[in-house]
Amino acid sequence: MDQKKNKKIIGIVGGGQLGRMLTQAGHKLGFKIIVLDPTPNSPAGQIADRQIVGDFKDREKILELASVSDFMTFEIESADNETLQKIKDSGMPVNPNPETLRIIKDKFKQKAFLQEHNIPVAPFALVGSMDDALKQGEIFSYPYLLKARFDAYDGRGNCVVNSKKEIESAFQKLSQSPLYAEKFIKFKKELAVVSARDVYGRIVSFPVVETIHKNNICHIVKSPAPIEKETREKAEGMANKVLDALRGVGVFGIEMFLTTDGEILVNEIAPRVHNSGHHTIEAFNASQFEQHIRAITGMHLLDLEPLSKHAVMINILGERESEAEPKGIEEAESLGYTKAHIYGKVKTKVERKMGHITVLSDNLDEAEAKAVEARKKISI
Ligand SMILES: Nc1ncnc2c1ncn2[C@@H]1O[C@H](COP(=O)(O)OP(=O)(O)O)[C@@H](O)[C@H]1O
Ligand SMILES: [Mg+2]
Predict the structure, then answer these.
(1) Which ligand is nearest to the CA of 181?
(2) 339 has which bridge partners?
């Protein structure tokens, strides 16, 4: 295994933008990175030391990745947790723990797990048939949500059901996965915390951010969240409680609702780096990606220092179906304290995450206005 001779190798299941930014952080810390992704020349594969082309659920390919890695992690929930568990059982460090992945990848199991650990979540129920969905409409009242249990992201597994007439079309839209129902939550804001745990058991969290979604997709992140101290402390406490309940080391993204009554509910957990932490690349002494690499390789997490009072991140979503042609990056960055990240995706698609922009500023509103302006200068 020549590859193992010098630098240690991190194997990442998944080669999207998260894998790409993990690769950048891994290289900075002196590791080699090999990614597994079905798309040749994936965003991470373009800059990694090697890409194995294969599916996240392909047992043989995951075993091949393990055979050339010293540490393993994943950037996508659909990674095959059973194979990762076998690899872990054979003595390889695999983090976050595959058992945690098993629970989280099934959104229904995840909700039940949180409830068992006394972590407040929106009322939810299993739905096996349209009859069940009808009953649930009576219990939750309309609108409520039907959600895919598996492989959901960027709102693609969710459907708001406004009346019983919409149940059938919701079932059609979400036919790829078993479903569960969730009460519609009236929230004041959505919040998120990115927390990391290292092998020494220490937890280090980034400040609570506000996330603003458009069409169920993360659009803007404001750091720190413009909320009162009491709310902030509640959200931080909730993140710690979630980490106490979960096994394994690495970074976790914890999405929350701040309800109109001032309560905090956990919406969902990502057992990986998260879109609400992309600003940390520029806004902190260590990014979420660096903290993750540190944690999974047995290094100590760094104490965090903000490098700017405020940061705003805006996603660059595709607006057409075509070959990607990024333009206007320099113009956007010339606004100052503005950094654009383009993920290298070959094809642009409507609402596909193609990149993001981070703006640092002493003033939150100014940062947001500049982020919006910078976004307008970029086409992709
Ligand atoms: N129970 C709910 N009530 C109101 N809005 C919701 C609810 N669940 C999800 N949403 C909205 O949809 C977005 C995406 O839902 P989420 O379950 O987090 O799925 P995804 O895995 O696609 O991120 C959330 O960020 C939120 O804006
Ligand atoms: Mg979400």
Answers:
(1) 1
(2) 358
Ligand nearest to the CA of 77: 1
**Domains of the chain with CATH codes:** 2-94 (3.40.50.20), 123-183 (3.30.1490.20), 187-377 (3.30.470.20)
238 CA from centroid of ligand 1 (Å): 18
The two tokens of residue 174 are 């979400």
Longest dimension (CA), the chain: 63
How much is the pTM? 0.96
Cβ proximity of 308 and 280 under 8 Å: no
145 alpha carbon to ligand 2 midpoint, in Å?
Answer: 13
Partners of 210 in the β-ladder: 191, 222
Give the CB-side neighbour count of residue 284, counting CA atoms within 13 A: 22
Nearest to 242 by CA among 372, 338, 121: 121
CA dist 99 to 68, 105, 154, Å?
A: 23, 10, 24
93 φ, ψ to 5°? -70, 115
Q: What is the CA radius of gyration of the chain?
A: 20
Bridge partners of 144? 161, 183
Q: Which amino acid is at 321?
A: E
Parallel, antiparallel or unpaired: strands 353-361 and 338-342: antiparallel
Name the nearest CA neighbour of 286 among 204, 212, 379, 169: 204
- 268 CB near ligand 1 (under 6 Å): yes
The pLDDT, as a whole number, for residue 2 is: 47
- Three-state DSSP class for 348? strand
Distance CA 309, CA 297 (A): 30
Question: CA dist 115 to 203, 218, 260, Å?
Answer: 22, 25, 21
> What confidence tens digit (pLDDT) does each residue in 304-360 have?
999 999 999 999 999 999 999 999 999 999 999 999 999 999 999 999 999 999 999
Alpha carbon 147 to its chain centroid, in Å, reads: 17
Determine the residue type at 137: G
Instruction: Find all residues with CB under 8 Å of 83, minimum gap 6, and list them.
Output: 59, 62, 63
Q: Is the CB of 185 under 6 A from ligand 1?
A: yes
C-alpha span between 74 and 95 (Å, rounded): 8
Distance 92 CA to ligand 2 centre (A): 30
